[in-house]
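agent: user wants the structure for Lactonase family protein from Paenibacillus chondroitinus. delegating to structure tool.
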Amino acid sequence: MNKQAAIYAYIGTQTDGSSSEGIYVYRMNPLTGELEYSSTAAAGINPTYLAIHPLKQYLYAANTIEGEGLISSFAIDSLTGRLTFMNSQPSGGSKPVHVLVDGKGTFVLAGNFGDGSVSVLPIQADGSLGAMTDFIRHSGSSVHPTRQQGPRVHSVTLDPAGRYAVAAEYGADQLRVYRLDAERGKLLPAAVPSISVAAGSGPRHAVFHPNERWAYVINELGNTLMSYDYNPVQGIFHLRDTHATLPEGFAEPSFCADVHVHPDGTYVYGSNRGHNSIVIYAVEPETGRLQLVGHEPTLGRAPRSFIIDPTGQYLYAAHQDTDNVVAFSLDRQTGRFRPMGHSIKVPMPVCIKMISI
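agent: tool returned. relaying tokens verbatim.
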């Protein structure tokens, strides 16, 4: 008889100004969706954003540090989900806030918010990190008087085929597009290397539809969600339309954060910090056009991160300002979700990732 797969949640946190002890590991009960505490890994200063190797054996964390930051590697115990620290390497730039692993598990890509740079680090045979193989610093600024005075990379996202990377250049209101040289670990300019977005938007995170033909970018400052047609052969994005993430008439301060597509491609979700909600858009299956479904409250303040579990049944919202992660049950027919009466306390959660092992 095959062992039932265990689903683990890994929660990256901000340690500065909080009681956090690092990265928190929880096991998900697949019948109830409840998260049950498993372990904590000491992970240095501010192990905020996380990425998991496609083999599910290793985890990587961005240590968001003023000055040159670090990217740290951990081994994942396949029986308990526990993390064991392996090594750290400089990220090359200041305040790394995003990491990802390419689909072949050979490189980690990092986005440095502090100085608007991206870097590539090779993954060694044992899962640890080697020294950088590439580093690119952006230039530019935009209209916001305090948040866009210079380049600020908020994320680097690979397309599903692993050919092209798009860096959300928050500070310059640009999407920088690179072709990944997976042999040498280099980022090369794509056919259209830079895409302008509306001034003052502050692009934060990008996500691709499972069919590889559509992409979505959420804008922190503009409180908008942009929908793109995507050419996966050339890595070219064509803007289709832009949608509001906030309800009509809402005028209080709010800033977008995270964006995800449901695993079956039927809905796109984006989080609002301030309105403290997740906006839901239905994806028209033939054209990819978005239709507003509505907004659901997340029952906490500042939902900086959220995730849909590997089964597609549950959604978890991590609130940085109220130190909690709240569990919801997803209705796969309507796209909406409802609270299950379960939440966990985690100090200043910044990122949540889940795997089935």
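agent: one observation worth passing along. The chain has one domain: 48-346.
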